[in-house]
Write a structure and sequence with these properties.
Elements: H1 27-34, H2 39-44, H3 51-56, H4 60-63, E1 65-67, H5 76-86, E2 92-94, E3 117-119, H6 127-134, E4 142-147, H7 158-165, E5 169-174, E6 190-195, E7 226-231, H8 235-250, E8 258-262, H9 271-283, E9 285-290, H10 293-296, H11 301-304, E10 306-314, H12 322-329, E11 341-343, H13 366-375, E12 381-383, H14 399-403, E13 411-415, H15 422-425, H16 460-466, E14 473-477, H17 507-512, E15 521-527, H18 534-542, E16 548-554, H19 563-570, E17 578-582, E18 587-588, H20 590-596, E19 604-608, E20 613-614, H21 616-625, E21 631-636, H22 640-654, E22 662-667, H23 673-677, H24 682-689
Parallel strand pairs: 1-2, 2-3, 3-4, 4-5, 5-6, 6-7, 7-8, 8-9, 9-10, 10-11, 11-12, 12-13, 13-14, 14-15, 15-16, 16-17, 17-19, 18-20, 19-21, 21-22
Length: 704
């Protein structure tokens, strides 16, 4: 706000007659302004500028909750000084994802005697450090930690276990088979478990899901209200989560109101899990539900489960038909105004009356969607991706027209084929995939004049975008799209062709997104009819709040046809923090990085490109100019030598000034890619490096 060497006293300004003096604002206004400044800057810098700010920066409203989880400039010395200055005033401390801080930094938390909530997910912490820290935090009620190989619960002191016995909320990320601290938390009401255990060690040995010696203590679930488990791919994760569920199957907590298990692939139901679900059907009324698809498909479970005031449902990848969904879950369209988040990703028949004789590409039944929209009128988050939701040609029944009634939507995920304007395209011949668009053979000037190929503002998708004033997160993803870089597997060399209905979706639809003024996150994947990318410029100009942008496989695969438009767009994205690009044959050269340098707020960059190329000196220059960038992941077609040399140069040049810097430059098709991926901090891997749909992935406000 002011140079630290210049003392400014309230009411004094050499130019107070020519402008507004910030110090003349009321304390309430100044406190609101200061709430946007990172706490480390407030305490260590801003409060030293003048006497008034020295007082305001220590106001309880600013020191009560300290968020360091994305303060990438914080280092161990700043943490030490921060805890020394305001440790006693901190009641909530979030250090999630501070992977660059040494474990010794955790020791300074012992100064926070009044701490009630503590998030250490993604931090380096040993059993002994955890024991020392928790022993002094007698007021702690909410805790998030990682359990890494080598964790030993026997090293926890009696004082630490006493603190854990009072903890009501626990979030635990497991990288090794273990109960972690769960058996010590005898008063748990909320338990969140993230299973990230790999099936193989670095040496190639198969791992077992059996718990470590000394892990015979069982969890205490009698007070549990929320149980959530998210599994990464792998059989070991499934084995370990079954051990956690075994205790639940013996006695279901009476107050359980949210039961959620997110498991990729096949996770078979067992006798124990069946007993658990039967017990839940008899004894509890749920507000939130998510189950593995194998537990729902073909069973009558949903007929027997009882719901109170549900706010979250996820039936991702289930084969429920629309008829079953409405009858068994939606209660015939009654009493669902409480539902705020619904995930139907991969539910290929969820908008059809029945699934027995239906093909996935058949038209949807608009009456089912209309019933859903009417009964769930307060939806904030809706995911319909990874399915073919084809609207019929009947006027007024298009999916986009029906969704336009959901005025409160904050996030929305749709398949590309669902936004096709069927009526408008009926007289147009389908685009031939083997015909090269004429615009590819000549340079196209990006600007207002390039919008000549856009559809009129009366298109159904244009109307939808104009009807959602509060939308913050939008995903338009091809129903057959799969990323070239899946989790724990070799890179995918071939991709499936886009849906036929998606062939007409291109620049005009992208331009329509520019109407969403407050858009913060945008994902576009597998839009085959992108000819110039002109719609991207519209988004860059009009969506000034955009923070996250993910583009994948736009236009024809053999040529990055939207490069000029992308570079023009980036010049306007002053708030962009995360950029992910996945496109074959992408050339990350000097012009691209020069345009990207206009994104002054950029923090994380990920490029995935089969047969893609990069220019090392351009990358170095970009990193030197963009001082906020702390993550650079590039998986291209370059040789291992080129990649290693560039990665070493980046680390050597910038690591000292950017403690959080994480650089991975590696050939996409190299056999050791999975070994490289396992070393990426989970924060980056989960939020940007790996492609996935994130709309309604978890219940809203699952963790603070």
């Amino acid at each position: 706000l002011f140079p630290p060497t210049q003392e400014i006293v309230s009411g004094e300004s050499e130019e107070e007659n020519n402008g507004v003096n910030l110090m003349e604002f009321s304390d309430e206004i100044l406190l609101h302004i200061l709430s946007y400044v990172p706490c480390t800057d407030l305490v260590l810098n801003v409060r030293r500028t003048c006497r008034k700010l020295a007082t305001l920066c220590l106001d309880k409203s600013l020191t009560h909750t300290v968020l360091l989880q994305k303060d990438y400039k914080v280092n161990k010395d700043k943490v030490k000084q921060l805890m020394r200055d305001i440790g006693k005033e901190i009641y909530q401390l979030n250090m999630a994802g501070c992977y660059w801080l040494p474990s010794s930094s955790i020791d300074h938390i012992t100064r926070c005697k009044n701490l009630v909530k503590l998030n250490l997910s993604g931090c380096h912490i040993t059993s002994l450090h955890l024991s020392k820290t928790l022993s002094t935090l007698q007021q702690l009620r909410s805790l998030a930690i990682d359990v890494n190989p080598g964790f030993d619960a026997s090293q926890l002191s009696s004082e630490c276990k006493a603190t854990l016995s009072r903890v009501l909320e626990l979030k635990q990320t497991l990288y090794t088979p273990s109960y972690g601290v769960v058996p010590c938390c005898t008063s748990l009401e909320k338990l969140l478990l993230y299973f990230e255990i790999l099936d193989h060690s670095r040496e190639g040995f198969m791992l077992s899901g059996q718990l470590m010696v000394g892990e015979s203590n069982v969890p205490h679930y009698q007070n549990l209200r929320v149980f959530y488990a998210r599994l990464a791919p792998g059989y070991v994760n499934q084995e370990v989560v079954r051990l956690y569920l075994a205790v639940l199957s013996d006695r279901t907590p009476e107050n359980l109101h949210a039961f959620l298990i997110s498991a990729p692939g096949s996770f078979a139901e067992t006798g124990a899990t069946k007993n658990l679900l039967d017990s839940m059907a008899r004894n509890v009324r749920l507000d939130a539900l998510q189950l593995p698809k194998a537990w729902i498909n073909g069973s009558g479970l949903l007929q027997h489960l009882k719901f109170n005031n549900p706010f979250y449902f996820s039936f991702s990848r289930c084969t429920l038909s629309g008829g079953q969904l409405m009858q068994r879950v939606m209660n015939g369209g009654k009493d669902l105004k409480s539902l705020t988040s619904l995930n139907l990703s991969g539910c290929i028949h969820c908008l059809a009356p029945e699934s027995l004789f239906r093909k996935a590409e058949d038209d949807i039944d608009s009456s089912i969607l209309e019933s859903l929209v009417v009964s769930c009128c307060n939806l904030r988050h809706l995911n319909l991706s990874a399915a073919h939701h084809h609207s019929s040609k009947n006027i007024g029944n298009h999916l986009c027209q029906l969704l336009a009634r959901l005025k409160h939507l904050l996030s929305l995920a749709l398949p590309v084929c669902s936004i096709t304007d069927v009526a408008a395209n009926m007289e147009k011949p389908p685009m031939q995939s083997n015909v090269m668009p004429q615009t590819l053979g000549k340079k196209v000037r990006i600007g207002i004049q390039t919008y000549s190929n856009q559809k009129p503002h009366s298109s159904v998708f244009w109307t939808l975008m104009g009807s959602l004033p509060f939308l913050e997160n939008l995903e338009i993803i091809g129903s057959s799209f799969s990323s070239a870089m899946p989790r724990n597997e070799p890179a995918i060399r071939n991709s499936l062709p886009p849906c036929i209905r998606a062939q007409s979706v291109g620049d005009a639809e992208v331009a329509a997104i520019g109407q969403v003024t407050y858009l913060q996150s945008l994902t576009l994947a597998q839009l085959p009819n992108i000819l110039t990318g002109s719609g991207l410029v519209s988004i860059g100009l009009q969506c000034q709040h955009l923070r996250t942008l993910s583009l994948a496989n736009l236009g024809m695969m053999g040529n990055v046809v939207y490069m000029s438009a992308l570079m023009d767009m980036l010049k306007h994205c002053k708030c962009l923090r995360d950029l992910r690009l996945e496109q074959p044959y992408f050339s990350a050269g000097a012009q691209f990085f020069q345009a990207l340098s206009h994104c002054s707020s950029l923090q994380r960059l990920c490029i995935v490109s089969r047969s893609g190329t990069l220019q090392s000196d351009a990358v170095m220059s970009f990193m030197a100019n963009c001082l906020e960038v702390i993550m650079c992941h590039m998986f291209m077609g370059e040789s291992l030598t080129v990649c290693k040399n560039l990665q070493q140069s980046l680390v050597r040049s910038f690591q000292a000034d950017r403690p959080a810097l994480n650089v991975v430059i590696f050939p996409l098709l190299h056999e050791d890619l999975t070994e490289v991926i396992r070393d990426v901090p989970m924060r980056h891997l989960d939020e940007i490096t790996l492609f996935k749909s994130r709309v309604a992935e978890e219940p809203p406000n699952l963790w603070w």
